[in-house]
């Protein structure tokens, strides 16, 4: 007996053949792309391609680990590329003042402000529509970075140039490749790394001195 076309039947409806399933898959893909284009791309259009970072929300343990490495530290706390605002809201909840998020995407900014309002922190935390590459970070003492590996080298140069010696940078998901962390917490995707700028600068100066001709 010959095998007929594979079908998938939903309860109470006519069965779908292979062609219909393919069309459904294509339609789903188009819908997903349209959602991305409408909601997540607007903030990227003004940023060079190599510096663009796709939105990927941080998990609860990632947030907890990042803030644990900043616990007890005073000063302005910022999240570079703050996404839906969950990390900034949690930072404020744990006593970090002020807590600020920088994000270009207007839809994510709306979601961030809604999250702050829902938590009772509306007007207490700040979400600013600013390009993190153009923000002056000289008054920031706690910097949180959940960004892609390709962004870390140029960002390292910016942080070295602008942050005060007393600042601490916490990186999630991926470490800074040329920096030695002061401490780390977690494993796998939940691992975070802390860098004290005074130590980072000292190491950079030592490396430069060793490489200089006598």
From TrEMBL:
Keyword S-adenosyl-L-methionine assigned: yes
Keywords for this protein: Methyltransferase, S-adenosyl-L-methionine, Transferase
One GO CC annotation: mitochondrion
Gene3D superfamilies: Vaccinia Virus protein VP39
Gene giving rise to this polypeptide: Fam173a
SUPFAM superfamilies to which the protein is assigned, alphabetical: S-adenosyl-L-methionine-dependent methyltransferases (SSF53335)
Domain of life: Eukaryota
Family per similarity comment: Belongs to the ANT/ATPSC lysine N-methyltransferase family.
InterPro entries tied to this protein: FAM173A/B, SAM-dependent_MTases_sf
Protein name (database record): F173A methyltransferase
GO molecular function: protein-lysine N-methyltransferase activity
GO process annotations (BP): methylation; regulation of mitochondrial ATP synthesis coupled proton transport
Organism placement in taxonomy: Eukaryota, Metazoa, Chordata, Craniata, Vertebrata
């Amino acid at each position: 007996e010959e095998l007929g076309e594979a079908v998938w039947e939903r309860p109470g409806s006519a069965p779908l053949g292979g062609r219909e399933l393919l069309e459904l898959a294509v339609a789903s893909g188009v819908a997903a792309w349209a959602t991305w284009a409408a909601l997540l791309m607007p903030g990227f259009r003004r940023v060079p391609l190599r510096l663009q970072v796709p939105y990927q929300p941080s998990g609860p343990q990632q947030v907890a680990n990042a803030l644990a490495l900043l616990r007890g530290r005073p000063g302005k706390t910022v999240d570079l590329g703050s996404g839906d605002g969950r990390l900034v809201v949690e930072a404020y909840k744990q006593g970090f003042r002020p807590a600020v998020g920088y994000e270009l995407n207007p839809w994510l900014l709306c979601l961030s402000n809604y999250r702050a309002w829902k938590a009772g922190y509306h007007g207490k935390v700040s979400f600013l529509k600013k390009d993190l590459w153009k923000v002056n970070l000289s008054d920031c003492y706690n910097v949180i970075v959940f960004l892609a590996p390709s962004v870390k080298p140029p960002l390292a140069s910016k942080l070295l140039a602008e942050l005060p010696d007393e600042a601490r940078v916490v990186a999630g998901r991926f470490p800074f490749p040329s920096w030695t962390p002061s401490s780390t917490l977690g494993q796998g995707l939940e691992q975070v790394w802390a860098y004290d700028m005074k130590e980072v600068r000292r190491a950079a100066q030592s490396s430069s001195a060793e490489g200089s001709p006598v």
